[in-house]
Amino acid sequence: MKLKIILFTVLIPASFATKAQTNNKGFAITGDGNKDFMWMNIRQIDLSTGKVIKTIFQRSKTNFSMLNVDSKKTVDQTAFVDGNIYNPSQYPTSSFVAAAAYDRRTDKLFFIPMRIGELRWMDANVKNDAPQFYSMAIPGYVPSAGGDEANNITRMVLASDGYGYAATNDGNHLYKFTTGKKPTVTDLGALIDGEENKALSVHNKCSSWGGDMIADAFGKLYIITANKNIFVIDINSRITSFKGTITGLPNNYTTNGAAVDADGNIILCSATAFDGYYKLVMSDFSAVKMEGSDIIYNASDLASGNLLLQKEADQARSSSLSKLIPTKSSNDLYQNSIYPNPVVNNTFKVLLDGNHKGAYTVIISDLAGRALQSTKVGLVKGQQSQQITLQNRPVKGTYIVKVVDEKNNEILSDKVIIL
To answer: pTM for the full model?
Structure first.
């Protein structure tokens, strides 16, 4: 029995270490490492250290095959004339890649080369020295011509809903794609500037092009532009809200790649500077250098299978506060909810469906129970969606929202995250 206990206690930390190592698996699109800017190589990195673990694909060196799932035509290294393995029309990453996303469930790495208009992917766990790539045309996509980079796709991520999302430089196209054997790609339309964006539009070339995209566990997308600005996207409405600008980075450090590590931190990389990786502190948008991270390769994109705010989402789901809300029967069509959650602007809505008409009070308090705001709302017969405006926006974090009736009976109690 003692031996079993000892083995069990040894295996527990080992399993946690294995999980952390898996969750810190990231992918970088890099150059050759000679102070060059040939963003055509795919390397696996450890997001906890910023170090390269292995090279999965390297231009002019790695044998490969690529199947077009539309035409069923296969291209491999033997197709190159005179052994020239650099051919823009056939090479998997030939026109440079600045948008990649990793799907942990299928262990696939998706990417879109610039100026080609194809979604491409590969098995990220390559078993041999000749990776298999797949490609398909993006319906309706018109590649940018000449020096125009407006329609280049440079931001890409797998979101919490299981779909991939990608955006063009100019923000006029947000694409959604599936991750099956033959993905489907849908153009959702242009991103829409939130009212608070004012002069800093998500479409502005100087402030908002390039960069990368990450996703959180609550269904939001985040664009981190090359010029260090952060926007949050509501997928359903495509409304895009400016949140802040990253500080603490060198002047020549463009933020071209971003990925979430196992601890929920955002790791940043640059395609223009050979200065290693930085860790973004979301509470104040400051960046801290990861000492000892790779400085040999610059990187035009990062990808991981992690979501921002995953711990907060897990805590919200398992919160004991949710047990305070009465369990509803399958015949009860009424429900209470708070949305959007997290709150990215200064407003959110409380849905009180099926409750008696009358006066109610919506109370926002911190986790210590200290009330920060109290709002009176009136309810009439039928479904009600009450908008609550944050009078004095609190610091980012988790808060409690309670709704009580005229007799001070609690009809809703739940957590809300304010970003």
So the answer is: 0.73
